[in-house]
């Protein structure tokens, strides 16, 4: 925890909320000097090496989804957080653009569900990418109305998370994307979780002023399976807390390509994203990657080259935005959803309407502000 932030916390109070506000603050800007940066291995006293299983994923299988050989990954644990694994960008050079395009062009398509579906007709949200092309590909000084892509805040995949009831259900399911299933399976296998079955995904789309409220991901019915997180585009501060709101969270940077696995004792910890930050070298790193496409000509590769035309749109979008993908296994082996909706698992401290703090399009922001003040945490909205 940042010393400045730590000094503000008194015992017994909602330490997470205080530190969330500390990092979210714009004026004066917070001190980021104690934020853990795994890409630089700092501070070294909190970071421990994580043990991976390089034999779990062959180099060829990994390369098909754009991953380096597991033996070359830089994977870390955090002192005091057993089961938490941070993998510092294990993607092959040139493979991120293809994942960025999936997040912007492919996954928002039907039958997947997105925030825009909540107040637009299916025909209006049918082709978010196509309808946003003009606005995002033309360099324009003057302020244009926001494109649908810029209004996108979340997309759900597989078992679609119901934000109101905080449940998944058997009758709201569409096929989970095979490419993302395969990436998730390889990453979790390397982390010691063979047989992970990606069943639900939530993509969060962050603008530079977005944040994500304090929450625990506990709606899945089997918590013995890890929670997996990938991110692309701008950087963020991620806060990882404890099982209680009084536990002060640890802050860490998440940069494009980084991955996290929350498992074991870290699976049900409070976490949040208080802030989006510019990527360390501007967009240069990802821009360069597009110029050096990953060698993906092998059979079954999901890392296909991104056309110049598509990349113009992707790169304009991620110059100011971040996309995070969390992947979850909802059911354990042989497990089924409870029979009646009323007996479905409910969450106490889980995600609520406030989860997407600073995330809504203008209409829903207005609606929310009418009913409650701006809140930092998912619990209280
Ligand atoms: C993140 O955006 O890094 C976290 C997403 C989540 O907790 O759901």
Structural class: alpha+beta
The order of strands across the largest sheet is 1-2-3-11-8-13-6-5-4
Average predicted local confidence, pLDDT:
87
Q: Please indicate the percent range of residues in DSSP E strands (runs of 2 or more).
A: 15-25%
Describe this structure in words.
It contains ten helices and 13 strands. With 381 residues, the chain is of the alpha+beta class. The protein has one domain: Jelly Rolls. The protein has a nine-stranded antiparallel beta sheet with strand order 1-2-3-11-8-13-6-5-4, covered by helices on one side. Strands 7-12-9-10 form a four-stranded antiparallel beta sheet, covered by helices on one side. The longest helix is centred in the middle third of the chain and has 13 residues. It starts with a helix and ends in a 10-residue tail after the last helix. The structure holds succinic acid. Succinic acid (SIN) binds next to strand 8, strand 9, strand 12 and strand 13.
Please give a quick description of this structure:
With 381 residues, this protein is α+β, with helices and mostly antiparallel strands.
List keywords for this structure.
381 residues, 10 helices, alpha+beta, nine-stranded antiparallel β-sheet
């Amino acid at each position: 925890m940042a010393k400045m932030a730590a000094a503000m916390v008194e015992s017994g109070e909602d330490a997470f909320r205080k530190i969330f506000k500390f990092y979210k603050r714009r004026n004066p800007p917070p001190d980021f000097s104690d934020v853990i940066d795994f890409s630089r291995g700092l501070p070294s006293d909190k970071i421990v090496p994580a043990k991976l299983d390089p034999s779990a994923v062959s180099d060829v299988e990994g390369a098909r989804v754009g991953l380096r050989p597991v033996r070359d990954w830089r994977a870390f644990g955090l002192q005091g957080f057993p089961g938490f694994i941070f993998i510092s960008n294990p993607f092959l050079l040139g493979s991120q653009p293809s994942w960025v395009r999936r997040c912007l062009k492919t996954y928002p398509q039907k039958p997947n569900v997105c925030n825009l579906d909540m107040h637009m007709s299916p025909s209006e949200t049918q082709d978010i990418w196509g309808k946003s092309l003009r606005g995002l590909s033309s360099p324009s000084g003057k302020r244009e109305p926001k494109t649908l892509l810029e209004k996108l805040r979340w997309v759900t995949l597989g078992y679609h998370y119901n934000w109101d009831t905080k449940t998944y259900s058997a009758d709201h399911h569409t096929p989970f994307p095979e490419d993302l299933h395969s990436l998730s399976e390889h990453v979790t296998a390397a982390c010691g979780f063979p047989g992970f079955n990606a069943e639900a995904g939530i993509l969060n789309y962050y603008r530079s002023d977005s944040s994500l409220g304090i929450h625990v991901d506990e709606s899945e019915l089997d918590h013995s399976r890890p929670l997996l997180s990938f991110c692309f585009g701008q950087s963020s501060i991620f806060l990882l807390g404890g099982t209680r709101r009084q536990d002060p969270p640890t802050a860490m940077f998440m940069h494009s390509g980084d991955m996290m696995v929350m498992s074991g004792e870290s699976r049900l910890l409070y976490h949040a994203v208080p802030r989006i930050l510019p990527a360390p070298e501007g967009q240069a790193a990802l821009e360069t990657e597009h110029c050096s496409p990953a060698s993906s000509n092998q059979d079954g590769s999901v890392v296909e080259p991104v056309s110049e035309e598509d990349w113009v749109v992707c790169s304009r979008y991620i110059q100011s935005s971040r996309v995070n993908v969390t992947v979850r296994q909802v059911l354990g082996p042989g497990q089924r959803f409870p029979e009646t909706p009323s007996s479905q698992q409910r969450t106490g401290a889980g995600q609520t309407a406030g989860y997407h703090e600073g995330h809504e399009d203008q209409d829903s922001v207005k609606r929310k502000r009418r009913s409650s003040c701006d809140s930092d945490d998912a619990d209280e909205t």
